[in-house]
Specification:
hpI Integrase, Chain A; 18 helices; 4-stranded antiparallel sheet; 3 domains
Length: about 425
C-alpha cells in the first residue's frame, strides 16, 4: 500500500516502505496502447525534500512516455516497472535526461503565476490577515518589478543576491525591514520548491543582527509612571464625541488586550460568566478578526474599570441602538478599527513629551512585565494576553481557564 501525505502534491506519493515515487496520469486516449492508467517511478529516497528535487526530471520523462513520445529521454521508462515498487531502492538512480528534456525547465511558470498560486493557497488556508496579504502581494509585486517576470527556473542565487543587495543598499531601510522582505520572498520560493521541484536560493540570506541591536530597536514597554501620566492627560470617561480616546487606553491597561481586539468590540461581546461580567475576545462578526486561534479568550472586567463606570457605558451604547462599542471608529481597509486610534495617538503623544518608541502597544508590554514581576505562571499570562503557550497540550486543551483564576490575574494589575 502507499500513502499520500496531507501536504504532498498529487504527483508524489510514498510507499508503505517509505520510498517516494513520482507518478503521472496517462491520457485517456493512450491508456489502451500503454496499458496503464498512470505511470510511476521510484525516486530512490525516503527524504521528502530530495524527492521533490528529483521529481521534476522524472516527471518530465514520465510525461514523454504518457504522451507516447520516448524520443525526449535517453532511456525508455519501463511501464511495467513504473507501477511496482523497486525491491532495492538504493540501486535505482534518478533518470538522466537529454538536452531536449532539460528544456522542460522552460515550462516552469513565471513568477507572476507562482505568486498568484501561493497567495491563493494562503488565502484559502486563512493563514494571512487582509493586511498581511496586502503586504505580501506588494512585496512580490516589487520583486517582479525589480527582477522581471522571469521563469521560475531563472530565479537563481545570482537573482536572489541581486534582490537582497537592492534593498540592503538603501540607507533609509532598517535591517528589520529588509529582512522582512527577504523572508517573504524566501517563503514564496520554499513553497515553489515543494510544488515545482526547484531549489530555494533565498535560504540563509537574511541579515544577521546582534541581540544588542535588536534590543535597541524594540518597542519599549511603557513604565508605570507613563501609564499614570497617560491616564491624567487623556479625556475623562465622560467623553461623549470620541469615547474611544477615554476608554481604549484604560481598557488596554486593565485587560492586556490588543488595541485591535478592543477597538472592534460589539455589544454582544460582553457576557456574564460564573456571575462575573467579562469581555469575550473573538471574531464572530464579518468585520472582526483575531490574530491567531489562541487569541480567542474571555477576560474578566477589572474592578477599577467597573468603578470608572465602564459597565454603565456599555449599557448606554446598547440603549442608544449601537451594535458596536465604539461606533465612531471606522474600519480602514486592511488596517482594521485600530488604525484610526493609532493616528489619533500619534498626534496626541507629543503633548505628553513621549518619544517615537512610546506607543499604545507599549501598554500591553507593560501588562506582561507587571504580571511577570508578580510571578504569575507564564501559561496563565499567555492565556490572558492571547499568546500561544508554546505547548501543544496547553494550546489545544488549555484555552479555557476558570474565571475566578483569571480574575485574580486581572486584579493584580495596578496603575494607581
Amino acid at each position: 500500500m502507499s500513502k499520500h501525505l496531507p501536504d504532498s502534491p498529487p504527483y508524489l506519493f510514498q510507499s508503505r516502505h517509505g520510498i517516494w515515487y513520482a507518478r503521472i496520469v496517462v491520457p485517456v486516449d493512450l491508456r489502451s496502447s500503454i496499458g496503464k492508467r498512470e505511470l510511476r517511478k521510484s525516486l530512490a529516497t525516503r527524504d521528502r525534500f530530495e524527492a521533490a528535487r528529483k521529481s521534476w526530471l522524472v516527471l518530465s520523462q514520465l510525461r514523454c512516455v504518457a504522451d507516447g513520445d520516448t524520443q525526449g529521454t535517453t532511456e525508455t521508462v519501463d511501464t511495467q516497472a513504473c507501477t511496482q515498487e523497486a525491491p532495492r531502492p538504493t540501486k535505482v538512480s534518478a533518470p538522466t535526461i537529454t538536452t531536449q528534456s532539460n528544456n522542460s525547465h522552460s515550462k516552469l511558470p513565471r513568477l507572476s503565476q507562482v505568486v498568484e498560486e501561493f497567495c491563493q493557497e494562503k488565502s484559502k488556508q486563512g493563514a494571512w490577515s487582509p493586511h498581511s496579504e496586502q503586504v505580501n502581494r506588494q512585496t512580490y509585486k516589487d520583486m517582479i518589478a525589480l527582477l522581471g517576470d522571469i521563469g521560475l527556473e531563472k530565479f537563481t542565487l545570482a537573482k536572489a543576491l541581486e534582490y537582497k543587495r537592492h534593498f540592503s543598499s538603501k540607507a533609509d531601510l532598517a535591517v528589520s525591514t529588509v529582512n522582512k522582505r527577504l523572508t517573504r520572498v524566501s517563503a514564496l520560493l520554499q513553497w515553489a520548491s515543494l510544488h515545482y521541484g526547484i531549489n530555494n536560493p533565498m535560504v540563509g540570506l537574511t541579515i544577521k543582527v546582534s541581540a544588542k541591536v535588536k534590543a535597541s530597536k524594540a518597542r519599549d514597554a511603557l513604565s508605570e509612571t507613563k501609564i499614570k501620566q497617560l491616564f491624567r492627560e487623556i479625556p475623562s470617561t465622560t467623553e461623549h464625541k470620541m469615547p474611544y480616546r477615554a476608554w481604549l487606553p484604560r481598557l488596554a491597561a486593565y485587560t492586556g488586550a490588543r488595541l485591535g481586539e478592543l477597538a472592534q468590540l460589539y455589544i454582544d461581546d460582553f457576557t456574564v460568566i460564573d456571575g462575573y461580567p467579562c469581555i469575550h475576545i473573538r471574531a464572530t462578526h464579518p468585520d472582526q478578526s483575531i490574530k491567531t486561534a489562541t487569541s480567542e479568550r474571555v477576560i474578566p472586567i477589572h474592578p477599577k474599570l467597573i468603578a470608572m463606570g465602564f459597565l454603565q457605558f456599555v449599557d448606554k451604547q446598547q440603549a442608544s441602538g449601537h451594535e458596536r462599542l465604539f461606533p465612531e471608529l471606522r474600519k480602514i481597509s486592511t488596517r482594521g478599527y485600530s488604525h484610526q486610534v493609532s493616528k489619533w495617538f500619534y498626534t496626541f503623544k507629543p503633548k505628553l513629551g513621549w518619544g517615537e518608541r512610546d506607543t499604545l502597544h507599549g501598554i500591553r508590554h507593560a501588562v506582561a512585565t507587571q504580571l511577570k514581576h508578580k510571578e504569575f505562571s507564564s501559561d496563565m499570562v499567555a492565556g490572558l494576553l492571547g499568546h500561544s503557550h508554546g505547548s501543544i497540550t496547553f494550546d489545544r486543551y488549555g484555552k479555557e481557564y476558570k474565571i475566578e483564576n483569571m480574575l485574580k490575574l486581572v486584579k493584580a494589575l495596578e496603575w494607581d
